[in-house]
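Render this sequence as a predicted structure.
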Amino acid sequence: MPELTRPSRSLSVLALAGALTLTACGSGGGGSDDGADGGSGGSRTVEGANGSVEIPDSPERIAVLWRPTLAALTLLGHDAVGTMGTPGEADQGLAPFLPEDADGAELTLVTSSPVEDDVNIEELANAAPDLIIGVSTPNGTQGQMLDNLESIAPTVLVEWEGTGSWRGHLEEVARILDAEDAAGEAVAAYDAAIERARADLAGAGVDPAGTELSLVRLQSDTEIRLETPESFPGQIVADLGFARPDSQLEGEGDTDFVPHSYENLDQADGDAVFVLAGSGYPDAPTTFSSGLWANLGAVEDERLYRVDYDFWGSANYHGAHRIIEDVTAALTGGADPAV
């Protein structure tokens, strides 16, 4: 088959970074909040990108305004009463941000797209959250709508500076929800997954340090992007210990990729090539044995694989596991090349 299918995976995550300071400030009384099941009645103060925010001690109706936050929420054992997504897409575009057994179609969307400022305030209010976790990016758009968000529920904005933020995002959400133990368990499970993958690769005779992996995103029919070690998938293959081609070590400008036209496709070669194509380019080819692709050594060696960029570019821990599984399956003979 030309594209790697999605194998089963365990629930786990990468190493944590970042910080949100959490301090207790409320009583432990038996009152209830306005949520469906009520909370503990107490409150806590957390520090977010928007300063100190008093939140319910045990929030039970949480809305999230960033899809990687949805991933963190589910890893910590919580459900979302409202989230970002893409209406009309399979699973509302949420499959890369959910456990494998979850159905994104069942979630309530409070946006009509994943764009950070595309928040439907009326739909968000209808979801009746007792806590909103938003995002503070360099664009700052959710910060500009903070008054509207806070009129619905206490709102904590979590810093997100780019794909490099995904490692610390889980820790920040865990501190908000007082769920550090669950985050730690997920980290340990991710570390174990990395070690299992390394063992499987070694058993198949693959030496990651001596194998240059090329990561090629199909952006359109005129542009490819070479993913560098700073990109989300680049960080995962680095954790697996793989080398990278010299042409993919540094991004252009302040980006984590190198853009090229197809005329420069030779820059995409490697000992093995992973071609990343997702829903943003629905007409992307599924096999790569003709035209300029035929000039690549990886095509001649039948070591080129097509993978789903929706997962490989999702910048969250569910997506990280997908990358580990896809790479391991491809290089140990568990998946067919796309040639």
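Summary. DSSP finds ten helices and twelve strands in the chain. The domain at 22-186 is CATH 3.40.50.1980 (Rossmann fold).
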